[in-house]
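Question (not urgent): is this output format expected?
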Amino acid sequence: MKYEYRHECIQAQVDQEGRDPRWTYKVYSEKVVQDALNRLGQDGWELVSMEPKWIHGGYEYTVPENVECWYATFKRPLKR
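Got this back:
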């Protein structure tokens, strides 16, 4: 069987309001990731692999703070 492949960066963060409504910050959202995966699955795409893109910040650049997005590879049978 032959396959077609797709590689995507699935965003994993959403804006959240801070205590002061003038400030927002990024937070990880499982729902955003799950919705993206489910959408692709409904189109027949099967997840092959997923790797996180970590955000590093502050003074300790060796310690990751959060996942910004997921690099994901999908496949599905090639339509003839």
